[in-house]
Design brief:
45% of the residues lie in helices and 15% in strands. The chain is built from eleven helices and ten strands.
Length: 278
């Protein structure tokens, strides 16, 4: 198992070219947020924006639209319960996220199945939260998109049928192969499973143990995947910097909130992009 530290970040955060515009940095579509769990999709979308995605569209329950417009004016917002509209906007996206606050009802299943069918091999897809639970309960297969699963231990247990005690590196890697996708297993010192190797994040702190932390990581992953061509290093950098920001905050904070991490993302990316000579 390889150690994930700041060295991996040095190679993928170059300074932005002078001649560039928002179209150079990807278009992220995030799908989720029912009436009860709108905060999850707001955090994920905020993290995607603050991570530098060129465009961000959020497909969510209409009850969340006002909060999103007020909290994140940089994002576009559509009705996440209008399947035809969601699929139409998918065609414009380079990176798609589904799951944060999605819910487990029939409408959520319908949207998930439509998204899995509509995605293309050229798109990057992050499957998170409730979407993972639905994938497991409905026995759905990984789609043709370049897919990343982001389960916590309980979600991974439902998807892999491995109890938490059975979740060893070898068994996790074996099931990842069956999935045919990358896996970011969220835990203390999160593990990242690729086809040819496994990484363990050395950053992270108990101060991160609070609601919305995983949604924030999902948004960062989407923002990085939208911008950076190398999928593996984009995933590794997002996972590491998410924890590294929390480590820095934990020096003066007993608890680090997801919203605090989001605010720090551009500063830390700038620091890494200018600190090293590319």
């Amino acid at each position: 198992m390889k150690e994930l530290n700041q060295n991996i970040v040095q190679g993928i955060l170059p300074k932005r070219k002078n001649e560039s515009y928002k179209g150079n940095y990807g278009h992220v579509l995030l799908i989720g947020g029912n009436q009860e769990l709108g905060g999850a999709i707001i955090l994920a979308a905020s993290a995607a924006v603050y991570s530098g995605a060129g465009l961000v569209t959020v497909a969510t329950h209409p009850s969340n639209h006002t909060a999103l417009h007020a909290r994140l004016p940089e994002a576009m917002v559509i009705d996440g319960y209008d399947t035809a509209k969601v699929i139409h906007h998918m065609k414009k996206a380079t990176t798609v996220v589904i799951g944060p606050g999605l819910g487990l009802d029939d409408q959520s299943q319908l949207i998930l199945k439509a998204v899995l069918t509509a995605c293309t091999p050229q798109q990057r897809l992050v499957i998170d939260g409730d979407a993972i639970t639905l994938m497991a309960s409905e026995n759905l297969k990984t789609p043709v998109a370049q897919t990343v699963y982001t389960p916590h231990l309980g979600e991974w247990q439902r998807l892999s049928h491995l109890t938490i005690e059975e979740q060893t590196k070898d068994l996790n890697a074996h099931f990842r192969k069956q999935l045919g996708a990358e896996v970011v297993l969220k835990k203390h010192h999160s593990e990242i499973y690729f086809e040819d190797e496994v990484w363990q994040n050395e950053a992270g702190t108990p101060a991160m143990a609070t609601g919305g932390m995983g949604d924030t990581l999902t948004g960062m992953l989407a923002g990085f995947l939208a911008q950076f061509p190398n999928r593996k290093t984009a995933i590794l950098a997002a996972v590491y910097l998410h924890s590294r920001i929390s480590d820095d905050l934990a020096k003066t904070h007993y608890v680090t909130l997801p919203s605090q991490i989001i605010q720090r993302i551009p500063c830390v990316m700038k620091d890494y992009a200018t600190k090293f000579d590319f």
